[in-house]
Design goal:
It is built from 15 helices and 25 strands. It has 482 residues and is an alpha/beta fold. The protein has two domains: 271 residues, 3-Layer(aba) Sandwich (Aldehyde Dehydrogenase, Chain A, domain 1); 195 residues, Aldehyde Dehydrogenase, Chain A, domain 2. It has a seven-stranded mixed β-sheet with strand order 15-18-19-14-13-21-22, sandwiched between helices. Helix 9 links the parallel strand 13 and strand 14. It is globular. Bound molecules: nicotinamide-adenine-dinucleotide. Nicotinamide-adenine-dinucleotide (NAD) binds next to helix 7 and helix 8.
Length: 482
């Protein structure tokens, strides 16, 4: 079978990488190479930055309504190709196609539409007194860089480029080299729907080559990054040195805290299960530490395990699969090593703990069974470090104070969920836990207007709503004397 050969988007054209080199792209469900992704380098980034710098002034000068229309047309194109993009996302990432169809691609459309609308509704600021009126302008930065990860490929790629473009910037964007396909399709769609050349440029390739070239290019004024804490630390340092803005969305080790008074209806229990295993546990928001009040621990554990055991792992194309394959062989090896480490630390595997080899076309894919582990102390590596796979640890607690101490006992601080009927308690606990996002009696219920991001090693800065528009603009105060 001929391999798909992907290309970069530079100045409104699909281009080969300058070095003519390509990287293998694997289908996680089969373990086989199915596409070739440009192995671009600093030359490709320079060409993209030059195109962006050329296009930026005219893009910034467009009436907001016109910029919004361009984004809406791109959203229309993604929506019109929803089913095909969902299948392509699933093939590239290993996630069930039903999930890509219900979550990833609709959310990519929503991101583009949300920021197209938001920019037309963004009020300016003014401060007047008897002497003068101060007008605070929000001017675009010029050329900005957007770097995204593999777990929600088109979803997070559009989450970054949409506010950057809406605010009037030209963009040089880099998707993950592990999941480059849908960003390539977006490049094709941008050309088809007449997106102005040079305003959106997409360079494919490796982080240490393409990513660093974007971060360190002197014309690039800001970096919006989502990925690992390790890469984020490099980007924070590089941007600080060059006085660039950076917004960093990084790893997590999120707690779900279940109090004895929680409404543990079947539907809520399903949400708690989903919060651990959706997208194979490869969502930064997944609750990988499940804290349960001791008085209900035994009963809860039984019901929870029954549901986890019922999850089906298999071919992502099969509508019956709840979990697909892990994204890469390297990540599969990491997750299985983490499970072994949990055993070595004294943990008891209650279900899962094994790899899965479906019959037929997926026999060589990278599948891991949903895994639940108990009996580990809070301060062990398993309970402190991100695994980013279908692995949840069960941790009993005695009271509110202990639950809070356990929840906060990690360097990360992205998202937490609290399950209780007592609103006073929900309020108290939410106030005392060190996380940027707290859900009460729900999980991953997203309103795109809200600030999104983490504290500690999970993030610096916030995305979403006006936070993103503020990040991608520079305030300029103009004081006009009376
Ligand atoms: P990663 O840091 O390896 O890669 C992320 C992106 O950065 C990729 O495009 C990669 O090519 C690029 N990159 C790598 N090295 C670079 C460098 N030196 N300079 C510039 N760019 C570089 O992360 P990943 O493995 O792709 O993604 C998984 C991680 O992302 C997990 O830690 C997960 O928690 C995190 N994540 C966080 C959020 C959030 O919103 N906080 C959302 C999704 C994923």
């Amino acid at each position: 079978m001929a391999l798909h050969t992907l290309a970069n988007l530079v100045n409104g054209r699909l281009l080969e990488p300058a070095g003519h080199a390509y990287l293998d792209v694997f289908e996680p469900a089969t373990g086989k190479v199915y596409a070739r992704c440009p192995d671009s380098d600093a030359r490709d980034v320079s060409a993209a930055v030059a195109a962006a710098a050329h296009a930026a002034p005219a893009w910034a000068a467009l009436a907001v309504g016109e910029r919004a229309q361009h984004l809406q047309r791109l959203a229309d194109a993604v929506a019109a190709n929803l089913d095909r993009l969902a299948r392509e996302e699933s093939r590239d990432n290993g996630k069930p196609v039903t999930l890509a169809r219900q979550v990833d691609i609709p959310r990519a459309v929503a991101n583009l539409r949300f920021f197209a609308e938001a920019i037309t509704q963004w009020p300016g600021e003014s401060h007047a007194d008897a002497r003068a009126i101060n007008l605070t302008l929000r001017q675009p930065l010029g050329v900005v860089g957007c770097i995204s990860p593999w777990n929600l490929p088109l979803y997070l790629f559009t989450w970054k480029i949409a506010p950057a473009l809406a605010a009037g910037n030209a963009v040089v964007a880099k998707p993950s080299e592990i999941t480059p396909f849908t960003a390539f399709r977006l490049a094709e769609l941008a050309i088809e729907c007449g997106f102005p050349p040079g305003v959106l440029n997409i360079i494919q390739g490796l982080g240490p080559k393409v990513g660093t070239a974007i971060v360190e290019h002197p014309v690039v004024k800001a970096i919006s990054f989502t990925g690992s804490t390790r890469t984020g630390a490099y980007i924070a340092a590089a941007c600080a040195k060059a006085f660039k803005k950076s917004s960093l969305e990084m790893g997590g080790k999120n707690p779900a805290i279940v109090f004895a008074d929680a409404d543990l209806s079947d539907a809520n229990l399903d949400t708690i299960v989903r919060s651990g295993f959706s997208n194979q546990g490869e969502i930064c928001l997944c609750g990988s530490r499940l804290l349960v009040e001791r008085s209900i621990y035994a009963g809860f554990k039984q019901r929870y395990l029954d549901k986890v055991k019922a999850l089906r792992v298999g071919d992502p194309n099969d509508a019956a699969s709840d979990l697909g394959a892990l994204v890469s062989k390297a990540h599969f090896d990491k997750v299985t090593t983490c499970i072994q480490r949990a055993r070595d630390e004294g943990g008891t595997v209650l279900t899962g703990g094994n790899t899965v080899q479906p019959q037929g076309r997926c026999a060589d894919g990278w599948f891991v069974a949903p895994t639940v582990i108990e009996g580990l102390p809070q301060d062990c590596a398993t309970n402190r470090e991100e695994i980013f796979g279908p692995v949840v640890t069960l941790i009993p607690f005695t009271d509110e104070d202990e639950a809070i101490a356990i929840a906060n006992g990690t360097d990360y601080g992205l998202a937490a969920s609290i399950w209780t009927r007592d609103l006073g308690r929900a309020n108290r606990v939410a106030g005392r836990i060190d996380f940027g996002i707290v859900w009460v009696n729900c999980w991953m219920l997203r309103d795109l207007r809200t600030p999104f991001g983490g504290v500690k090693h999970s993030g610096m800065g916030r995305e979403g709503g006006t936070e993103a528009l503020r990040f991608f603009t520079e305030p300029k105060n103009v004081c006009i004397a009376n």
